[in-house]
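3.2 Worked example (two chains)
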Amino acid sequence: MARLACLWIALALAGDAVAAASRPDPAKPVRIEIESPRDGEPVRNKVHQAPIRGSASTDAAGASSFDVMVVFDVSGSTKSASGVDVDGDGTVGINPHLELLDPGAYPPEVLSTDPDDTILAAEVRAAEVLLSTLDPERVRVGVISFSGEMNPVTGRRASHDQQDSWLEVPLTADFGQVRRALPGILARGPHGGTNFAAGIRLAITELAGLSGARSQPREGAKKVILFLTDGLPTFPFQSGSTADPGDTEAALTAARLAHKAGITINTYALGPNALTNPIAATEVARITLGTYMPVQNPGDIISFLQGVSFANIDDVVFTNLTTREVSYDVDLSPDGTFSGFVPVRVGRNRVRVTALASDGSSASVELDLDFETSGLTERELALELERIRKRNKELMLLVERERIQRFREQQRKQLEIGAEDAGDGASEP
């Protein structure tokens, strides 16, 4: 314990030099790398669509690896209904005490008529869906849960030295291991108060490889915490049922340590309880140069988490400069890798790939490809395009993406201006 305490003190006293080293440079350019096709490479397909794969990031060296710790709030309030049919059984669980139901139909402790549609269930499902969007070659994932046991008489912590956060899975590229651990969180169920600081500090220990960590640190990996909560910090001080300034300050102190360790925290405030006074969640994100996302309907976190970006890239658009067509059919992963299709014609096509960064900056690269008709069947292509469009539509509906809309409109306008300048529009085949 003494050694761990010394490490925490050393980290806290690292000073401005360490903070400056970990602070992202807002002037960093957007970097785009095309994996396939190579410039001038022949592309074959049975329909006039060419697949493009690559990656984008705002890291000048091109961030190639990410260590991501998903931190779950498992406090008592996460037993409330999430507002969506998490388990897909056709019935959406509701909070019976907020509806016109017969008195006594449900006991006071039941906050969701379907126990598989709770906020906690939505958090777990969001993590499962997130895993399906990640590349284990580039991303390691770990899971932590946090709450805070309360003395039923006093409402304070059950013990002064109690454990309020738990490492469910150390950082791993074995996503199967993560998936197998998630049901255990649901089985234990919601309980206790809400200790933000405990969850953040344990995540720092694992991501930074401090004493006692079960995760192996990885040189050069970008370190990210995805912090999910439906409430306010109520521990480690005073009563676990109410928030006080000491609880918030403990959370912000932990966030400052995370920043000095080069860790970014993206916070997700789920539901009205978390949104009534979100200062802790917003400040934790601000201090660590992360993002804060309010989620009015807690169950929407399942879709929201798919839209997270570790590489600080919000959108990628393909433009065929030869046919003057723009494609938004691009699947963008949180680690900045992307894949999609651009309309093409037979013969030589000049294609531009443009990426939009979270700070509003953008960059483009261009390549030539020679298209021939053969390869992927029309039905196979249609299914893949539908999958990409459905996912992108869900994200656009859930999040107000005005910057992305402006970015896409700008790409189209640039193309129109280019056509006017050319005088006769698209070149003939």
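3.2.1 Second chain
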Amino acid sequence: MENESLKKVFFHSPTYGSLSFQQVFEKIIEFVKEAPERKYSLIVGSDSFPGEETVFVTAIIIHRRGSGGRYFYRKLKYEKMDNLKLRIFTEASLSLEIAEALKKKLSENGVSKLPVEIHLDVGKNGATRNIVKEVIKMIVGSGYVAVTKPDSFGASKVADRHTN
């Protein structure tokens, strides 16, 4: 059964337009089946932009290592959130929600070997350096690989591209 909160949220794709979570999942499986012998990473990353309201973007990327990939993103608006720590933990929570839903669908469909990584918009330099360890523990403690800057392109490049 699909996560209730994901039933009402649509994802957007530069390739396919507006899709439900179920359709996103189907597109990921189709993409992997095009070249099943290749290695893949399934990446979830979130970023936010604080304005009049805070915009959170969560991206799902299926990366065929060495030859590109596809991505899908959803945009959620929350009331203005000035607290950086709260924003970062909200980003991590949104990524975890999507990662959990993907992992569940993957196991239901017999493709649970596809590893899910969570890309975090935090790094050892800059404003987030004081909370990096806490956020990594949250992700790793939930059973996922946590990737931080400068390698976390799922959050810092893909999701970030759609925050405005």
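3.3 Remarks
The longest helix spans residues 84-108.
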